[in-house]
Amino acid sequence: MTDPRTDARPPETPPEIPAGAPAARPARTADRTAVRRALRMAVRRIVRFAVSLAVLLTASFAMIHLIPGDPVRASLGPAAPIELVQQRTAALGLDRPLPEQFVTYVGGVLTGDFGTSFLTGEPVSEVIAARLPNTLTLALLATAMALIVAVPLGMWAAVRTENGRNRGTEVTFGTVTGAAVAVPEFLYSIALVAVLAVGLGWFPPAGKDGPLTYVLPVLALSIGSIAMIARITRVETLRELGTDYVRLARAKRLPALRLHLRHVLPNTLTATLTMGGLLLTSLIAGSVLVEYVFAWPGLGQKIVESITQKDYPVAQGVILVYGAIVLVVNLVVDLVLGALDPTSEIKEVAA
Amino acid sequence: MRVDDNARPTGQSEAVPDEGGQARKAASRGVVWRSPSALIGGVLVAFMVVLAIAGPLIWGEAAERIDAGAILQGTSAEHPLGTDNLGRDLLARVLVAGRYSLALALAATLIGAVLGTVLGALPSVLPRRGARLVTGLVNALVAFPGLLLAMFTAVIAGLGARGAVLGIGVAIAPGFARLTQTLAASVAGADYVAAARMLGVPRRRILARHILPNIAEPLILTLAQSLGGALLGLAGMSFLGLGVQPPDFDWGRLLFDGFARIYVHPEVALGPAALVALAGIGFNLLGDTLARAAARSSAGRQESARTEPPRAEGEPDPDAVLEVRDLTVSFPGDSTPVRGLSLTMAPGEIVGLVGESGSGKSLTAAAIGGLVPYPGTVTYGRLRLGGADIAGMSGKELGTALAMVFQDPMASLNPALRVGGQLSEVAVVHQGMSRADARRRAVDRLGHVHLPDPAKQAGQHPHELSGGMRQRAVIAMGLMGEPRLIIADEPTTALDVTVQRQILKLLREVVEETGAALLFISHDIAVVGELCDRVVVMYAGRVVEELPADRLAAGAAHPYTRALIASLPDLDTDRSRPLAGIPGTQPAPAQVGVGCAFAARCALATERCRTERPELVVHGPHRRVACWEVTS
């Protein structure tokens, strides 16, 4: 209860005109200001991206030098003749001064030369080119699957449990999604292989050969994300359902479907898309293990192989590519959000 | 629409079954802990802890017993999960491996926590440039998938348990760093810490009483959640062959071995997989519960509202636009913010509903519009709009006959949709207009409320309009149908004074033109006196006085109304003295006693006021008042 003194008299200081103030100016100026602000934000994001990329490049270069001892010796094994080690070291340029090596490395990466595999002598760039599409397909399919299933599920749960009604649904939803989120992708993979592939024989257990082979990996990769996004969508939807404009839309007596799809859904999309972007990066990481389980010919399988076999140039190249994908996805999410959501620029300034 | 369901008179309790009795009130935290996810999480984590302590003691020997006669077997009575390549019992090994898995996870979490806390605290001690560098690094690392960080670290640190633990520690660190940064910034700068400091509270006490309790909870929460994450991460690393190496074994390593045989004996992989999954689920659910318990406010569970629906008396008034008899809105927990309110409005009449915040005026509006939020129960003897019972009206009828305007025009327009679209959908949905016609009407209506360039504003998003323009657009939205009643809930409070005037003028115009009645809700008695024909004053959920607006200044009878008017500053008010106010506060909806609710703050109150509630009775022409002092 507020004191009547603060409440029962005309406001002495009129509240500031809320942040829509530019619109009071002639419209064209307002448009231009908005465009300029959006551009400035885009430039700032791109600069941030470039800096992160530089850090990533340095880190992947440093990796091979941070390995204790001689990476070539470690890779070839203690029995390898000393001449071979020296020859390999020279071929890799590892005997040159560090700054020179760095320049060579960066130059190589920029021209698409990631070095050659210790083991097979194959150019790393070819390994990546052959495998990257498979990894991306898997991650994108899983992301699409997660969004398509999770957003309606989360909205449904929100509408059903609004204001604490249907506590049963709320509890079940919370418990099931909470448990599903907690199980990592590789355990889903193992369970799916054991039950659906080996046990029931419905799907091929491994490999990439025809549409049926996609089912289990995509499923394994998306179950956890479905649970995660459904939870977030529910919370976002609940928040939207409590806003004044939804209240007003209800006062207009709009049919439920229209109310939810037209008034609520677009406002939850910002959060959902952000999640979708972050999800894609986490799925790319999760795909490492899933690919390993399903012998999927992607980058993930290769990175595990290269690390266990101490094939450092391949590990270096693949980690660099993974990192770059993460950075690019984050950049794209930021830019798309900036373009989509007219208010995100305000948040950016505030942050 | 579901909103309608709970706005209808029910009389019955739609309550949650009473399970906890009185204990429930006392223990709102207990509610969190009694949920199934908390229970499952707690049991699972307890099981894991017991397993880690007792497992190796009980099954340690069985796990190492080599049996050359039983190598690589599948499920059998003797070996429920089969045996490994040396004939060792896999069930025993899985149960024993728990300790190592948990210990490694604990180590990785601690490494991550220490590393992250240091990294997060660095910016506050480093010079500005260094601080920015560290912050940037943390931000970049947070965006990076943990598994990749872990692999990167593991490559450098070498294959094996040490590399994996370091790797997972590094992967956990950025999250802690970000958390520490945020916490350090928010807590140290909080008003209560500054206030305590100014009061001369000793530093150690500030730390113990104000800072620690506020950052300990999030830190411990994150620790608990990270532990689960670390456990899963380590299992993943070992499963890939990058973690624990033989002869040591953790769950991940057992998975690695089992996975190689999955095509022959799936059960040898499923055993350890199930335990890892259970551990992950346990820690996650427990973490969720801890987070929820921490965030839980004192809000208790819902209880039933016990209100009998009052019966309508007399015949409905055929000429009234709005007729409300004995409207009551109650919420679980014996809270009744609106009590037996009655109100009749004639066409074209402007009625002001005034009262302090919490007097129930906005809920009255919500109840008339059928918008009372869920646990609330609305009962009434009669609720008729334009001669028809509201409960029997279709969405279409209500949507066009009733227009609502809310306080904050910024919040009442959907930011994602164009203004014109939000207007025209009323016509499309309820009046069956074509899109083009509806849009034309929307532009026409926007022009009607004096927007400078209606065609253009119809195509804009709400954030491109000023506050006053938005409120005009909301009013225009109400004019899309043929409103019989406009309910304006503090429509000018969020606007500045000049815009306020314009909106009031517009509302008056609209009423004159359409013949609709206007229920104008405000805490500002000055504005109400200026705009309205009649004023209804509410206090603690009840109408205490009703009078013509022009009698407000001179003829108010109820002590509360008089106090409201007296508290208005005018040109003669001595600015050097504090503004006159009404001492005391309005009782909360759950605490209204038997007598007159205003008695505690009333200078004229007698014993009778405190024990017996005055009814609203006629007091002169067009005037009613509820006060013993005035009427007796």
UniProtKB/TrEMBL annotation, chain B:
GO molecular function, one term: ATP hydrolysis activity
ABC transporter domain segment(s): 322-565
Residues annotated as domain ABC transmembrane type-1: 98-287
GO cellular component terms listed in the entry, alphabetical order: plasma membrane
Compartments reported by the entry: Cell membrane; Membrane
Any matching Pfam family: BPD_transp_1
Compositionally biased residues, Basic and acidic residues: 303-314
Membrane spanning stretches: 38-59, 100-122, 134-159, 179-199, 219-242, 262-286
UniProt entry keywords in alphabetical sequence: ATP-binding, Cell membrane, Membrane, Nucleotide-binding, Transmembrane, Transmembrane helix, Transport
CDD domains: ABC_NikE_OppD_transporters (cd03257), TM_PBP2 (cd06261)
Main location: membrane
Membrane topology of the entry: Multi-pass membrane protein; Peripheral membrane protein
Gene Ontology biological process terms, A to Z: peptide transport; transmembrane transport
Record's protein name: Dipeptide/oligopeptide/nickel ABC transporter permease/ATP-binding protein
Organism whose genome encodes this protein: Nonomuraea terrae
